[in-house]
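Possible regression after last week's pipeline update?

I re-ran a chain I had predicted before the update to compare outputs. Posting the input and the new output here so someone can diff against the archived version. Not blocking, just want to make sure nothing changed silently.
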Amino acid sequence: MARPAAVTRMRARVLTIFSGDPNGQPAWVRALADGDDEGFFGPGSAVWEVHNGIPTVVAGIRALLMQTLHPGAMAGVHDHSRYKEDPLGRLAGTVRWVLTTTFADRARATEVCQQITRLHEKVRGDYAGSDGAPASYSADDADLIGWVHCVFADAFLGCHETWGGPIPGGADAYVDEWATAGRLMGMADPPRTRDALHAAIASYRPVLRRDDRVDDAVRWLRRPPLGPGAGPVYRIFFAGAVASLPPEHRRMLGLRRPWWPAITATRIGLGIMRRLLGTESSSMAYTKARLDRLAAASVDR
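New output (post-update):
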């Protein structure tokens, strides 16, 4: 049965937001069918389970909120990012990195991380430290690489535990597996357990702060220009991301937990989005095509 036209338009809009293509099949997604191995993770892995889940939609918002608290990361975004002028382009770039690292063969996953690392070499500057004195930042600093890795891992894991299903091997397996992405991005010793992940995030507490730039970024994240139709759903997901944050981090961001049942509303919204997009993403379909090809070739040998 054909989809109603309104549903088709909405589906195309959502796929464009996340992938840059109305069919959800840009060149980088189609390239997941290429390659000579199953990648760094593979079927049955904790990373596949978490990153193939619909809660990643909310995890992206939660991770961006957390990133703003590090003044070096916030300065880099403020000085070098075009997130206000091209929010969908920046979002699609982040989605490309996550899904390529997760599902592509090892060579392609390594390549996309190296591309981002090369871009980071140009992201540097100064910001006012807590004492008012200038402090330098560089996106390829180990400190900032570690912060970004940890808040992404924490957001993916926290949102999946809130709205997703069981994780093969549990939370520690996910953190341990996704440490591979941290190393690919240049982190020397990424955390390998959930407790170590929480300890790593806590270790940044002395440098985290809220200032005018953070408030500006949070206001923008609350209502980004996503176009017609997406705004009301996004605002539910934003509220869900805020509700899922630990209370300490909400306070640091100047946010309050919504008075209404944002966790439940987000669960309903994610369920609707799952039905809209289908049970299998284009990324997974092309990845399975690669694995099927490799399996057939091994049988023919």
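Follow-up from reviewer: compared with the archived run. The chain is about 65% helix and 5% strand. Marking as no regression found.
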